[in-house]
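I hope you will forgive my troubling you with a question about protein structure. The matter concerns a single protein, recorded as an amino acid sequence and a row of backbone structure tokens. Please examine both parts with care and let me know of anything in them that strikes you as inconsistent. Thank you for your consideration; the sequence and its tokens are set out here:
***
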Amino acid sequence: MRRPRLKAPASLRVAYYHCVSRIVNRDFVLGMEEKDKLVELMRIYEQLYGLRVLSYCMMSNHFHILVEVPQRPGEEDLPDDEGLVGLVRRTLGEKRAGDLAGELRHFREIGAEAGAEALREKWFSRMWDVSSFMKVLKQRFSQWFNGRHKRRGTLWEDRFRSVLVEGECEALKAMAAYIDLNPVRAGICEDPKDYRWCCYGEAVAGGARARQALRWLESLRPHGARVKNPPASHEALRRWRCWLFGLPESESARRELEAGTMNPGTGEASFRRGLSREKALEVLAKGGRLPRADYLRCRVRYFTDGAVIGGRDFVDQLFREFRERFGPKRRDGARELRGLIGGEGPAGGVNRLFSLRRLQKQVFS
């Protein structure tokens, strides 16, 4: 029997999910036009459902989305009829908005307040929910894809997978970078800026929402701190590039790197391509660990199968929330990610990440 999806408890005001969905049989059927359509639909339902996409990558047979999902607002903070119709108009177009406005107006005019509220709830019940967002995104894309390619039947392999990520900390930045680096790991490009179907590639090309997401990510600091004013777009892009390639942000540290007085393993040239699984396993077998910039260039199963990713306190908190899912012998939740160097990273980031699951095999898949 399939277990219910692990979702954030009510104690978390905002939740962050890394969602992955694959094409049935892992077929490579998503070309340029299909990826463009996926991004278009993702942006539509991101806005309609009150979410925020912080990172994404559309590949040829699967996609990744890192999404911020706030708790549903209180009744007094929900949009009124006009606000709801306006939201539908901006996202789904004039016809859907006109139909909704007509139905609401009819209920109000005849005094059927219960009917009007039921209609409003039909829309609100799908918002601020990761499952509803992923369901409608995959359904709408399947309808478009099947119509365009004159096919029938299912397009997606089973239900989507998700990992709950600690928000406003280094774990969120690590997950976003891992997603941006998908085309590098796949050998499609040497630099994610050249891949337009990932968040970093969109931001480099001038995409407003992608740039806003990177600015927000770059405002995060270790241990949940956040700078008051996010950096400007060009500065956020520069910092994010340093984060992706494991480069120090400061000019003086970069000069040390160039002079050879800093560990050369943190240099950009070492990370132009994804690290092979064989090399990662060799390091792990010898009891060694990888720096963050190398680690994120491996296919790390923790980022798709770890259930919860974050700091020790966050993972332990979620373990207590979902205690009934685990056996009586298990006393705590946090399991350190195998193969990742802990402590301070080469670019000043905290690499000490934990998962709710301990992967015994195939850490690097």
Notes: Residues 260-272, 343-350 have pLDDT under 50 and may be disordered.
